[in-house]
Amino acid sequence: MAARHANRRPNEPRERGGLTRRSMGLERRHLPLVLACLVALLACSLARAQSRSLTESFPEQGVQLELPRTYKWLPVQPNEPWVVLQWINPELAIPSRLQVVRIDYVRDAGPPMPDENGELPEPASPVINSWSRYCTQALPRWTTSVLEVGEPQGKFKAREYELLPSKPNGERGWAYVWDSRSTRTYALLGWTTDLQFEAERKDWRATARKFVISEPEPDPRTEEWRRFYKGRPRFKDAQYRIRVRAGLRGNWKHEDTENYIVVYNTKDQPLVSRIARDLESMRTTFLEFFPPDAEMTSVSTVRLCADRREYLDFGGQDWTEGYWSADTQELVLYDSTQREKAKRTDNSDTFRVLYHEAFHQFIHHSAGRLAPHSWFDEGFGDYFGGAIVKGGKLFNVGLNSWREPTISKALENKDFTPWREIIWYERDDFYGKRTGHAYAQAWSMVYFLNESSVVRRHTTWSEILPRYFAELKDAWANELGVLRGDGNLEDDFLFREAQKRARGRAVQAGFDGVQLEELEAAWLEFMGSLSKK
Fold first, then answer.
1. Structure pTM?
2. Do 12 and 6 touch, CB atoms closer than 8 A?
3. What's the topology of domain 31-107+126-213?
4. Minimal CA–CA distance to 32: which of 196, 191, 170?
């Protein structure tokens, strides 16, 4: 699984394991909110008595359904292969989720063929072409039981299911499945908590009763978008942009730049326009700092959620302000602008997160999809988090107000990690029990190496960062060549070991000839002078 880089708040704990986004996307941090759930259930029951359903049609998916008006459309993660539509009920303390799964039928692959040595490859998982296989592979921690046989729709047979976690955790699922083994399977999936289940299932069943299946149709907007991009060749990778635009619904809009597509759900158009401008400005800066070996043709997606609640619903962790995911190829953040009457509008946090995550997004491609050591990766992310952009150019890089107080206090207490240790930290070492301190120290190290006049005058120290990055690219290119030549690109263990070796060579090259104790002493003196200003 590719790395996911999150912009954490200062002194926050380590990011936990990923959620099963293909299922419910609920998080256990919500489960203690029992009292809030009970209050929300009462409020929701009153709202149901007064609300009506909303009919929505999705001809490109071949479905039409009626949803409770309390439900709000939510984007699907871009790399999700089966969930094609989803909504949440934001009026509940713990939002319920309703999803449409579409499984097109394909034949099973034939028996595997032996390789040139006569050996059979490892058996692959059977292709997902039915509801039962979807449950086995996409929902392995859930057990299903049939509640009743439903009303068929033509050649589609129907069944209603209850889904329970293998280990009780306060969560519960529901499904209504229409199956035509020769064409496709549709499933309406509902996810909520035990306390909310019975009330929510009434709405889900009502939606299932009016779920209409038809033959999927081509999206009529696609040809219009093709013509749009054909006349604007400066926008790279039209097909990618069209796929992103096809996934937008409701209030979500988009804005194209040469190297990015910004999708957003905020009414603050000046904010979106500045984000688009600054992204291109920062990319120019990144190219100067980290020149790639070949032209970068990839288009990057930046997703700006309306607010923190939507960010969390989409997949953000509650101790983060934004994240870049190599799995989904998206930079995700939210409009955190502080808008108060009689006070100056403050959107500095939004841009601090944007610049930080934009660096991760860029370095992923520039370094050949290899993440550097975390001190370098997160340190530079936070370094650029202090960027000041004016007139379309990087004007200056200031102190990062999220990190400077933390590292100043740590250094005052002589509470820091020696350089000879932290420069070798792999991801699990860096994101340990003291992640906030690790972030702050990484920022201070990169800030020192970039901004200290002592470093600039030193012939060896001034080359640490560029030497590290140059060797990282070269070493990784060599490691990839070996993996490819040996046919081991798909071996996860060997792939990770090759990444670790490449990073190790980068540290050796970057700090070759450097007396680390001397460098550390200069860093301590530099940071001490900052705290006195």
1. 0.82
2. no
3. Protein Transport Mog1p; Chain A (3.40.1000)
4. 170
